[in-house]
Amino acid sequence: MLVAILEAQAVEIALLKETNQQLRDEVARLQGEQGKPTIRAQPTRRDHSTEQERPAERRASGQRAARRPVVVDREELCQVEKSVLPADAQYKGLEPFVVQEVVLGTDTVRYLREKWYAPSTGRTYLAPLPAGIHDHFGPQVKALTLMLALLGSVGLRVSAYTLSTWLTEDLAPLHAAAAAVYVAGLASSPWQQVDDTATRVNGDNQHCQVVCNPVYTS
Fold first, then answer.
1. Would you say the pTM of this structure is higher than 0.70?
2. Which pLDDT band holds residue 37 (cuts at 50, 70, 90)?
3. If phi over 0 gives left and psi between -120 and 50 gives alpha, with beta otherwise, what is residue 203?
4. Are residues 83 and 121 in the same domain?
5. Domain identity same for 153 and 205
6. Percentage of the chain exceeding pLDDT 90
């Protein structure tokens, strides 16, 4: 008998808590705030130990993307500064270096880099690439990637791994700027608002801490 009473009270308490939370959310909504977010259930994930276990459709899609050729729109000639060449330097032709760039439409350039070799020094002299070019994708592509998802629609061939690298590596200046905003925000007011919001990180339910006042949010 006592167990039944306790169970009934537990159910009633749970219902009261749920009703109380709903009322809190409604009050928050009327005050222009956000109520308690609905957190999705943790999805079941399966790790594939071998490439053969991965879905065939995904493998086929990746293989098709790898076979698509890069269409070169134009070529530019990169020349070695003649003043740095020894007198016995021998011209060895052109070395291609393809860079994919985007200007709301592909601007794929094949830079033809002059290559010279000097027997006296045993060195090869290769014409430098233009400023800002460090790999096979131009700086405008990387900047656009941080804001838009247009790469595939304009015919650019780039892997998901490359996109992930752009978004997660070499971001020290952005992190420094975010830290500076946080420090300046703390000094901007004698009071701070602290909150958190549900956040998915690598498929896991976590929380993102928010610190703010009327002039900034971090």
1. no
2. low
3. left
4. yes
5. no
6. 29
